[in-house]
Design goal:
The chain is built from 4 helices and 6 strands, in the order H-H-H-E-E-H-E-E-E-E. With about 160 residues, the protein is of the alpha+beta class. The protein is globular, with a radius of gyration of 24 Å. About 10% of the residues have low confidence.
Length: about 160
């Protein structure tokens, strides 16, 4: 190797080697911003009472675990479930996040809820309180969507 070239190249190789020894630190995760986008967006979509608006907040492999019913799996099945629900009721949900954790492209949330469903035919109002767990997944577009929503009433069965 040429003496002049080695005097230039060797120090550069040492710098590159030193700098590549450990990966750069990951940017801190803004959990509050993710929670606001994911949780806030989902609750707003539910309260829109609009099927398409809600569907935009769900992954293609969405799973709904509603009380007293079998799981509803996949966007097509959940779309029908939501269309039937919104067709029969005007709904209003207050969901309070009581624990929100982010791990990579996944987020996990415990929540409590108070809901009110007004029957569109009779005007009868059904109120409920309960708790649930949401699993969110960040899509390739960066948007957080619900992959699983499982909830249960605190009211006794019967």
């Amino acid at each position: 190797m040429n003496r002049g070239l080695s005097a230039t190249v060797l120090p550069l190789l040492a710098i590159v080697s030193a700098c590549s020894g450990s990966p750069p630190a990951a940017a801190p995760v803004d959990v509050a911003a993710i929670e606001k986008a994911a949780h806030g967006g989902y609750v707003a979509a539910i309260n829109s009472n609009n099927v398409d608006t809600l569907m935009d907040m769900l992954t293609d492999d969405i799973v709904y675990q509603a009380p007293g019913a079998p799981e509803v799996v996949g966007k097509k099945a959940v779309r029908q479930w939501v269309a039937d629900y919104f067709g029969a009721y005007h709904t209003e949900w207050q969901k309070t996040s009581i624990g929100f954790t982010v791990s990579g492209d996944w987020a996990f949330e415990r929540y409590t809820y108070v809901s009110s469903d007004t029957d569109k035919k009779t005007g009868a109002v059904t109120a409920d309180i309960g708790k649930g767990i949401n699993v969110y997944r960040r899509g390739a577009d960066g948007k957080w969507r619900v992959a699983i929503d499982g909830w249960s009433s605190d009211k006794p069965a019967g």
